[in-house]
């Protein structure tokens, strides 16, 4: 391409710029961000909510100096609109005028999901984390977390460990149900009480006001701080109807080309949390995985520049440290997939495997470092792995 315009200022945007230069692209590269700060790493915001703060979070430059790699960097100039051009590329509108580019990469990530009318915090940026940290400062506080997903579980754990009184309200019957399904999610429920967190499942929140939470059953819960951690939605509102969306995300093919009504739109790519990627191996892969924002841009740039892609496509991969446990998840299990648990879920470590027929679609490894390597190897191939799973696994079964 004659030039590249990257829209977004997070990990996927930075890695796109870095990959362009790594693979020898020497044309002009411009970047538009919205947060006003250089790209930084988000996973520590929840895991190190109380033992770090912005100076440390923002100092993590993810191993690259954006200003040295790109020709123009505008970290506080959000894109407001996009108009694809018939000949390829697009015109991007900002408050300071229009930018035309022959190759636009959408990497605007996601926003934390909010509930209209609720007076509650969310956690997606370093500024959000600073605000929540400040709300918990100065002695034990009552923290209510709405949502027992990855972020909610992590924040609940670190806050309880620091002596705060933490209640987690989860609408579904078990924590992590969206990612793991109710059966495997339920295996994490005992961790809450063990960590001193009051977990209430099947809890319906009616509203959150300045003093606390009103539940659908009419009861009230007082709180000094309320965090709503009910997921993230791709940051696509600024695109209006410029490109078709799939479940709110920008649909891309295996080469990260944005899919229009009749095929890829020339000179328009998307990667990271904003995108949902078509995959022969996994079906549609949504964003929300740090690893996709880390490795997707390299594949995008290789395909763009005609550099051969080595190895299989990026495997959906999530890690979490929560309530004293280490979780690593590979693949993308479907709601109907069969689950086998190896090891003892009440003991020192276990691994859940999901299968569709004899194809393994997902693996969750909990506190079992040696299974992490085995699971990674299983998914490091072009096809979904086939393994024979025991019908009645014993406590000593593992993934070797
Ligand atoms: P983002 O990180 O969202 O970055 C997008 C950037 O683009 C933002 O700076 C945004 O302000 C900017 N932007 C938005 N709109 C515009 C616009 N119109 N114009 C210009 N710029 C714009 N994943 C894991 O796998 N494991 C974890 O343990 C884990 N922990 C997490 C903990 C927290 C608290 C959070 C919030 C996320 C966590 N994640 C984790 C998810 C992971 O951080 C994301 O998958 C990753 O950040 C995605 O990177 P991204 O660059 O696509 O998007």
UniProtKB/TrEMBL annotation:
<dbReference type="InterPro" id="IPR016156">
    <property type="entry name" value="FAD/NAD-linked_Rdtase_dimer_sf"/>
</dbReference>
<feature type="domain" description="Reductase C-terminal">
    <location>
        <begin position="319"/>
        <end position="383"/>
    </location>
</feature>
<keyword id="KW-0560">Oxidoreductase</keyword>
<keyword id="KW-0285">Flavoprotein</keyword>
<feature type="domain" description="FAD/NAD(P)-binding">
    <location>
        <begin position="3"/>
        <end position="277"/>
    </location>
</feature>
<dbReference type="InterPro" id="IPR023753">
    <property type="entry name" value="FAD/NAD-binding_dom"/>
</dbReference>
<dbReference type="Pfam" id="PF07992">
    <property type="entry name" value="Pyr_redox_2"/>
</dbReference>
<keyword id="KW-0274">FAD</keyword>
<dbReference type="InterPro" id="IPR036188">
    <property type="entry name" value="FAD/NAD-bd_sf"/>
</dbReference>
<dbReference type="InterPro" id="IPR050446">
    <property type="entry name" value="FAD-oxidoreductase/Apoptosis"/>
</dbReference>
<dbReference type="InterPro" id="IPR028202">
    <property type="entry name" value="Reductase_C"/>
</dbReference>
<protein>
    <submittedName>
        <fullName>Oxidoreductase</fullName>
    </submittedName>
</protein>
<dbReference type="Pfam" id="PF14759">
    <property type="entry name" value="Reductase_C"/>
</dbReference>
């Amino acid at each position: 391409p004659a030039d590249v315009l990257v829209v977004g200022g997070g990990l996927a945007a930075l890695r796109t710029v870095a990959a362009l230069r790594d693979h020898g692209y020497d044309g002009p590269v411009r970047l538009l961000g919205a947060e006003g700060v250089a790209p930084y790493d988000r996973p520590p915001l929840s895991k190190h909510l109380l033992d770090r703060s912005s100076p440390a979070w923002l100092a993590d430059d993810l191993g690259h100096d954006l200003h040295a790699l790109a020709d123009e960097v505008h970290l506080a100039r959000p894109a407001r609109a996009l108009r694809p051009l018939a000949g390829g590329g697009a015109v991007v509108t900002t408050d300071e005028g229009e930018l035309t580019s022959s190759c636009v990469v959408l990497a605007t990530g996601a926003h934390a999901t909010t509930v209209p009318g609720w007076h509650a915090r969310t956690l997606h940026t370093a500024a959000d984390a600073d605000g929540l940290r400040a709300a918990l400062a100065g002695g034990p506080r009552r923290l209510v977390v709405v949502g027992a997903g990855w972020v909610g579980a992590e924040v609940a754990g670190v806050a309880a460990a620091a002596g705060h009184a933490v209640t987690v309200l989860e609408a579904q019957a078990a924590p992590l149900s969206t990612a793991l399904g109710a059966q495997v999610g339920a295996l994490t429920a005992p961790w809450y009480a063990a960590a001193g967190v009051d977990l209430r499942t099947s809890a319906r929140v009616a509203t959150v006001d300045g003093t606390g939470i009103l539940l659908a059953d009419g009861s009230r819960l007082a709180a000094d701080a309320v965090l709503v951690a009910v997921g993230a939605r791709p940051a696509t509102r600024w695109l209006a109807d410029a490109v078709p969306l799939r479940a709110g995300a920008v649909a891309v093919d295996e080469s990260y080309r944005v899919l229009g009504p009749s095929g890829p739109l020339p000179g328009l790519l998307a990667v990271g949390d904003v995108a949902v990627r078509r995959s022969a191996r996994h079906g549609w892969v949504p964003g929300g995985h740090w690893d996709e924002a880390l490795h997707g841009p390299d594949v995008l740039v290789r395909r763009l520049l005609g550099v051969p892609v080595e190895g299989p496509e990026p495997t959906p991969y999530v890690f979490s440290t929560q309530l004293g446990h280490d979780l690593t998840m590979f693949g993308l299990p479907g709601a109907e997939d069969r689950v086998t648990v190896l090891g003892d879920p009440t003991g020192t470590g276990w691994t859940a495997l999901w299968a569709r027929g004899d194809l393994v679609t997902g693996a969750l490894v909990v506190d079992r470092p040696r299974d992490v390597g085995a699971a990674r190897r299983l998914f490091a191939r072009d096809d979904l792995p086939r393994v024979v799973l025991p019908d009645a696994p014993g406590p000593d079964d593992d993934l070797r």
